[in-house]
Fold each of these.
Amino acid sequence: MANGVVVLIAVLLLERSAAVGDQADPSHVDGAPPSKIAVVGAGIGGSSTAHFLRQHFGPEVQVDVFEKGEVGGRLATVTVNHHDYESGGSIIHSLNLHMQEFVKVLGLKYRRSVAGKTAVFNGDEMILEETDWYLLDLFRLWWRYGISFIRLQMWVEEIMEKFMRIYKYQAHGYAFSSVEELLDSLGGSGFLNMTRKPLSDSLLEVGVSQRFIDEVIAPIMRVNYGQNVSIPAFVGAVSLAGAQNNLWSVEGGNKLVCSGLIKTANANLHQAQVTSIAPVTSGDTLQYRLSFTSETDSGSDLYDIVVLATPLQESVQSGITFEDFSPPFDQLPGYYHSTVATIVHGYLNTTFFGFPDPRLFPFASVLTTDEPRLFFNSVASICPVNISAGFRRKQPQEAGIYKVFSPHTLDKVQLKSLFRSYYSVQLTEWSAYPRYGSSSSLPSIELQPNLYYLNGIEWAGSAMEMSSVAAKNIALLAYHRWNRQDDKVDQKDLMHKIKTEL
Ligand SMILES: Cc1cc2nc3c(=O)[nH]c(=O)nc-3n(C[C@H](O)[C@H](O)[C@H](O)COP(=O)(O)OP(=O)(O)OC[C@H]3O[C@@H](n4cnc5c(N)ncnc54)[C@H](O)[C@@H]3O)c2cc1C
Ligand SMILES: *[C@@H]1O[C@H](CO)[C@@H](O)[C@H](O)[C@H]1NC(C)=O
Ligand SMILES: *[C@@H]1O[C@H](CO)[C@@H](O)[C@H](O)[C@H]1NC(C)=O
Ligand SMILES: *[C@@H]1O[C@H](CO)[C@@H](O)[C@H](O)[C@H]1NC(C)=O
Ligand SMILES: *[C@@H]1O[C@H](CO)[C@@H](O)[C@H](O)[C@H]1NC(C)=O
């Protein structure tokens, strides 16, 4: 009998030490701060993570940022005729508080917006045309769609209001260990359900008409995500908020935020591709070995904390292999949707849209309905990232700069049908955002102790501000985990808690 107990205790002890062996305790009994943190990826996600890590861990810790391509990632510009134009993420909403804060901290400027009208094309004709008269537009919307657009507005506002709670929670230092926990604390099970339910179903439920969905919502989903109204309601709401007014971008290019944040964070930028990551335990400390290669050399280094700020789906080809993970960790399920941004310097073929005389074509941007014959999602006259005082938008009868979004590369015939003639064509093929519906779960934030993954949030909604929210969350989470402050992680009823803290 007594023997049996001893054996049992021995087994328990063995199991404990085995657990420590393959997944060491991340605690820091001595209270020592981490000495080195790595961030992989210098898009808005990685660069803002570096910024927030510096804020929370203080000036001593070494922060290394690895970037295999260009700083900015999916925020990028192309040069046409001596001016730069956004080819990736371009529009920021006035309620995107982290992005606003970055611009302020970095002393960057808001880019002035240049007015321009929008129309919706269905393959044969314009079915919706914005005019100079706000009241007339309102009247037309009312006439055509009844009160659908008011119902839509209320639905989006209610969601935004709940989403805005995140800034309060983060300002009070609260973090979440998963995207599910984060969404749940903002909008309860309703938000979680919205990441699984088609946008069209949610809108029909609140009384938005099918016609409004087909003619207004579908074109917005096509221009923002290259996908249809079957995408989840939550990401749909995020992009509808972005379709309202009060939109801005950064003078000189949105990517200036990324390079600026890395600089002010006093992080070391390594122009290198991380090729592998492996846990390394010695005694009871767990670290990660990152191996990397650049054009000039290759090497590896040990880090106490690692943040992966790039998508880990196979279709994105980060090139990172996970070695010695138990259980094994590999690429994540799902695909990224490919969107081609084609920037054309030329003359728009307004006849294509039913306007044989270009001087009578009043639109700056054309969205499209979900019409299989159409080979593009949108075409818009665009403005450079720097706008001088005397700038005016080019008229359709003049040569101008246009951006076309399409699911595939445009061939010559397609280009010739959209443009009467052109001087230059530049294309960027993006692994742009998740192909919603290609994975059923939201990826984890904590892959292992002290190893974090930022881009899972994109499966709830992909936007610059979403990456920034995830960055702040990871910096807080990493800090609390390191210092064992569990009362700051996954707390329930935060609205109430915060009120009583004040
Ligand atoms: C065409 C287009 C239009 C968009 N429009 C908008 C918009 O109007 N508004 C909006 O808010 N959002 C928009 N988005 C979405 C927005 O751009 C993204 O959500 C956001 O930029 C993602 O930032 P990120 O830092 O999370 O990822 P990324 O920008 O993809 O950054 C990841 C970085 O990691 C690097 N990397 C990958 N693997 C490695 C490795 N092994 N080693 C080192 N570095 C590595 C990559 O080179 C990349 O720079 C748009 C996106 C696209 C493509
Ligand atoms: C979300 O879905 C679950 C399961 O279907 C359901 O029980 C819950 O009531 C839903 N929440 C809301 C707010 O609709
Ligand atoms: C949207 O696209 C998906 C995948 O391409 C398709 O399965 C679905 O039926 C489409 N939904 C609508 C409403 O067209
Ligand atoms: C564009 O704007 C940025 C930011 O204000 C500035 O640094 C840059 O010099 C400007 N470039 C030109 C060509 O005006
Ligand atoms: C412009 O569009 C019209 C209508 O689709 C088409 O017939 C014509 O070939 C296009 N190209 C030019 C150069 O006009």
Amino acid sequence: MDTIAKRLEAIRSELLPGVSLVAVSKTKPVEMIQEAYEAGQRVFGENRAQEMAAKFSALPTDIEWHMIGHLQTNKVKYIAPFVSLIHSVDSESLLEAIQKEAQKNNRVISCLIQVYIATEESKHGFLPEQVLPLLEAPSRNRFPNVAIQGLMGMASFTEDDQLIRREFSGLSKLYREVKASSGLPLPILSMGMSGDYRIAMEEGSNMVRIGSSIFGSRS
Ligand SMILES: *Cc1c(COP(=O)(O)O)cnc(C)c1O
């Protein structure tokens, strides 16, 4: 089996220009994250608040921690002091909770709006038509300690590459539209995981979230 450094290098060599890599370390021990860190990786993704907080305390302080999984409102407090980017904002009540905790910590927390693009009920997110209203001034003014940086989406879990491509292409189109209509910079479009990041990049993703292709499969 290849080392983490080798796998990271292989994935980095495939990234299209302008695409950044979030190494998804959920369920993996700090030793493996340290190994990726020593290979130059600085951005890691986790899906559980307490697990992320424990890893934050155990690892170098120049790591950027990204929350990528569904986040319960009562868990925001564990990550609010240090989280770099929350990809998985999927409800207004979560936005409210992030606003509250960001204010308590006297900081602005960067977030992505998660959009529901899959054909599966199990996935979370706002409907495409709900996104623009969230970005407009009346709504934004309610969340002064939240900086929305773009959109995130997960394609269906399927072998059907055409379906995956259509879902990513739809999100990419929405991203361009809301960027133009809102007038906000919205620099980030986060889409693509181990199984579908090549398609995601072809459809315009500029941030991929890759776990198992770097750290091996999760049990
Ligand atoms: C687990 C997870 C990933 C990474 O999945 P892999 O298939 O292991 O690359 C990416 N995004 C989200 C939201 C995840 O929960």
